[in-house]
Design goal:
7-stranded parallel beta sheet; alpha/beta
């Protein structure tokens, strides 16, 4: 699909709308779409009169706020139409971010509606309900652009709240597509770790459990696998990442690792359990370095430590600094290191008890917010973005 994204400015200009538009451009290009960004400033196809800070545009905005709409409005509209027409002539859909519902450049809003291309008004804000822009609440053109649905235009809002507000202003029901985040970027993943995470599908895992321990019998990783099977029966997208390498001090650890893989197969959750050490043969080294492990801690929904004994328990501190809920056996040393602020299960209990405590951690207020935020990863939102653009293009 050929798409034009339009706003007053584009990155490297810093702003919420600019960052969302940049994310849309990156996602759509990554999915194979032909995307052009059109703006008055920034890294884009430049149309200076699109810029809300253009002297003529600012002067006209002040005139409109005072209730005056003179010949300068029509002149700017014609200039913008003439410059936008060739940039959008081959586009299947034009997406205007925040231009049609805010008063910063109403000639641009009018020009966009006259291009004869399918238009999407991606609505972040509504001037008509914001007291800061009360001066623009006037009858007649061009002020009516801010409150009247435009022909050939599909309205999309960034939240259900905005959709309800838009319905109150315009009497139409808009599609809601939320803003997103780059979970891997916020987790501080370097390029190699990000590639690994994407390859393993961890950004789409829900929940994502991290067991950051070496594969040795003392770590009781079998309990984590059994608990994952219990939770996975209700959470089909669960992933358990066992990030540690084989314990280096005993050849028995290889047999233990094979037993863990057989257990996962027996429990029919082998597709949910990822042993990072198995990637050694492909990558040549263990794929999670000490530097990279921090990203996985921050990305996970919960850290699971089912050890039968520990001398200290460094993952307790790593989970704490990452702000990720820690579920662990109730060992004196883990209580000491955590100060009692972990999610504990009885050290002699089985996997059912561990699964129950993991679920409690995931259902805590912080756990629920964490999972909700991860659902807003841009990669998960791309299908919604594509869907509304395809619908607008074919309308």
């Amino acid at each position: 699909m050929k798409v034009a994204l339009v706003h007053y400015s584009a990155p490297p200009v810093i702003g919420g709308v600019e960052s969302v538009m940049a994310a849309h451009a990156r996602l759509l290009r990554g999915a194979g779409h032909d995307v052009v960004v059109v703006a008055g400033r920034g890294d884009a196809e430049l149309v200076p009169e699109l810029d809300s800070r253009h002297p003529e545009v600012e002067a006209l905005a002040a005139e409109l706020a005072a209730g005056r709409a003179g010949p300068d409005f029509e002149r700017l509209r014609e200039v913008l139409t003439a410059k936008l027409q060739p940039l959008t002539a081959d586009r299947e859909v034009v997406v205007a971010h925040n231009v049609l519902t805010m008063p910063f450049n109403l000639p641009a809003a009018a020009a966009l509606t006259s291009l004869g291309r399918p238009l999407v008004a991606w609505t972040h804000d509504l001037a008509w309900i914001n007291p800061q822009y009360e001066a623009y609440r006037r009858e007649g053109e061009p002020w009516s652009l801010l409150r009247t649905p435009q022909p050939g235009t599909a309205y999309v809002t960034v939240s259900e709240t905005r959709a309800e507000e838009l319905a109150g202003v315009m009497g139409i029901r808009a599609t809601s597509v939320p803003n997103g985040v780059d979970a891997a970027d916020l987790a501080g993943l370097d390029e190699s770790t990000r590639e690994l995470v994407e390859k393993l599908g961890l950004l789409r895992a829900e929940p994502l459990l991290l067991c950051p321990q070496r594969i040795t019998p003392r770590k009781r990783i079998e309990l984590a696998i059994e608990a994952a099977a219990v939770i996975g029966s209700k959470e089909p997208n669960l992933k358990l990442v066992v990030s540690g390498p084989l314990g280096p001090h005993s050849t028995a650890n290889a047999s233990y690792a094979e037993g863990l893989r057989n257990l996962a197969a027996h429990l029919r959750c082998q597709d949910k359990v990822i042993f990072m050490h198995q990637l050694q043969s492909e990558l040549g080294v263990h794929p999670v370095s000490d530097e990279q492990i921090g990203g996985l801690f921050r990305l996970a929904d919960a850290v699971v430590l089912p050890s039968s004994s520990e001398g200290f328990g460094l993952p307790v501190l790593e989970a704490g600094l990452a702000g990720t809920p820690l579920v662990c056996a109730d060992l004196p040393v883990l209580r000491e290191v955590s100060g009692g602020d972990a999610w504990f299960y009885a050290a002699d209990a089985g996997s059912e008890a561990l699964a129950g405590v993991i679920e409690d951690a995931l259902q805590s207020r912080g756990g629920r917010l964490r999972r909700r935020a991860r659902r807003h990863d841009w990669t998960r939102l791309l299908p919604q973005i594509e869907s509304v653009l395809e619908e607008a293009a074919s309308a």
